[in-house]
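Q: Got a minute? One more chain.
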Amino acid sequence: MNLSTALRATLLGAATGMRSMTGLAAVALTTPRGARPAWVGRLGGGWGRGVTSLAAAGELVTDKSVDLPSRLERPVFGQRLTMGAVNATALAKREGARPVLPALLAVAGAAAGTYVGVRWRAYARQHGRATAGAVVEDLAAVGLAAVATRRADSKGVGMNPAIKRRESPLRPAGKGKGAWLASLEQGAELLQQATPLKDFDVYVVGFHPAKDDPDMQMEAHHYCRVVNDDLIQCVLFDGNTRDANLIGVEYIVSQRLFETLPEPERGYWHPHNFEILSAQLVAPGLPDAAEKALMKKLLNGYGKTWHTWHTGRHDGEPGHDLPLGEPMLMWSFNRERECDESLKRHRNRAMGIDVDKKYRDRQDLVPLAQPQWGVDDLKNEFIDTEPVPGVVDVSEAGQLAR
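A: Always. Here it is, folded:
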């Protein structure tokens, strides 16, 4: 949890103290269908939004009655505090934060909102403006709830509905976090900053085989920072959720930088053209034009990739529940039918990727593709493969001797 989440949980609690159902309705209306956990996702469904909106609207009407008990009476007051905690828990879960501290802050906010609301309404009645005072409180509750539940940053679960959730294929070894460690983590999230990680915003998904064991293949989710026009650095995960496992790193260089490397070093860098021209490499959530521009930028480039943890495959092949052995140098596929069709099919279906359309859209990049080093390094490790236009090894092109 960060300071933004803490503040928003407090504001959501204050809104709940004023109108007990307004906060929950605001969470429901701003939560995308299918959000996790499931109960939060159901809030964002049609029934969840409809029921909470009707309840909130009904409360705005009935709240004007003079026959209602005081919100400061024990049962009513307790109900508002409870609703504040529930609303903040839903908000925190939706955004991948731990709910304990947000819930506590929301309870404090609900207590303050309840007390301020009661005092304001009493003041309005004393001045003959009971209805106007109630409406002002309505607007304050709605405004606070709207600010509290607006997803303004990229860490929200619903940052882009076009990006489908991809869970890790494996739960790591180890027990759950104890109370002390969880408290320490929450304190660190409030008081410290993860500054070096903030610019890893470019998200692409592809497949890697191990260079020394090409049958070991896996899906890799890259979160990348553009250092400059010639260098990109990426952290690799086995999914795109908060619980995804860190499995490796990749450094990406342009053709210009690659050509400055000594020849022995080049054997560590895999070529990218097949990944791009075959549409195996995709950038979920980007509009087609932006994705294509990114792929054009990556064309003719190279990647140096080390995996430290094989967590398995999403299509069922098991992995290790801890990082074992030495880091593995990974490579790229460079012909059709080198990558296991089941691996590709599982990702494309789960993430809604139309590879055929992307393949067609990228064919005008073929004339820009240059012969690359490493295209034939795994050529003899696979059978019945098929080359694609634009993907040629430098030795085959006769440009350089390997």
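A: Residues 196-397 form one domain.
Q: Perfect, thanks.
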